[in-house]
Target: Protein ApaG
Amino acid sequence: MAAYEFTVTVKTQYLEEQSDPSRSHYVFAYAITIVNTGTVPAQLISRHWVITDANNHVEEVRGLGVVGHQPFLQPGEQFEYTSGTAMKTPQGTMHGEYFCVAEDGEQFDVRIPEFVLSLPRTLH
Model:
């Protein structure tokens, strides 16, 4: 087991009530669970997202913390939050990384695997 390791899982949801397809405005929520799967307590300091829509338009978002928090996680602890993004297309992808600092001063990045934002498939 790595000393400095967070595991990230993502669940996505299309927010139909906030979207307006006639204006190419599609809103998605994503629920993130971050677990300290390493052996050293560490704090999430900042985030970097790369959001790509179906037209290959890329938007990068950087900022401190997540939803106003910079969670400090002991080994085995987890932090969950929900956020969202809007795109001009009904599908797209997101990926990125969290910048973290361990209790012993070690700095490390946690990769957020790419996930798909997409309208639910509907049967007519």
